[in-house]
Amino acid sequence: AQTVTQSQPEMSVQEAETVTLSCTYDTSENNYYLFWYKQPPSRQMILVIRQEAYKQQNATENRFSVNFQKAAKSFSLKISDSQLGDTAMYFCAYNAGNMLTFGGGTRLMVKP
Amino acid sequence: GAGVSQSPSNKVTEKGKDVELRCDPISGHTALYWYRQSLGQGLEFLIYFQGNSAPDKSGLPSDRFSAERTGGSVSTLTIQRTQQEDSAVYLCASSLTSGRRDTQYFGPGTRLTVL
Fold it and tell me: N or C terminus of chain B with fewer C-beta within 10 Å?
């Protein structure tokens, strides 16, 4: 069975600084997708960024980028120039078929 | 366009009662998913529908849980004889098609509290 692990339950960062959230996963599949979702207090899960396992180039979306290390099964999220609106729960997720398998989440607090 | 909507936003019920949770997916999305988010178990997959195919029910925790999707659109998750451990946020998501590459878009969830 696939598992996704986020080893940092909580993190904090100063506004405008950079923070990296960690995620590791375990799978025997070769073709899969990885996602980072953000869940603010409103509960709405919002896609932040996605990565296809076959693509060596790391995905980037504005201030958000990933460091995808396939051999190490690692998929970290870097948030640059952190903003107060980035305060939320962040979930790493894996999909090799239909359903998403989620990590336990990291609560990120951006401090003014 | 409109995103995934869910109703009710919050539901409080008494132990032993039945509840129905509703999900309206994004128009044109053929795949629909239900997940449960609880403090103890995190985010868990419950059930998945793709078009007119038989649903994947492999994540349903007990036979008290069931779901249907009418006309390939709206879905209802039913929990019979609710227990306190059913208290959680129930999230619905939809995607254009099924499969690993399609992004799943989530609704705001229904918070269920069983007293």
Answer: N
| ∠ CA B7-A99-A66, rounded to 5° | 105
Tokens representing residue A5 in the block = 């692990």
**Mean pLDDT to the nearest integer, A20-39:** 94
Mean pLDDT confidence for B19-34: 95
Q: Is B91 exposed, middle or buried (0-12, 13-18, 19+ CB in 10 A)?
A: buried
CA distance B84 to chain A (A): 21
More confident position, A68 or B2: A68
Q: Is B89 on the interface with A (CB under 8 A)?
A: yes
Q: Do A98 and B106 touch (CB under 8 A)?
A: no
pLDDT of residue B1: 59
Are B6 and B112 in contact by the 8 Å Cβ rule? The answer is no
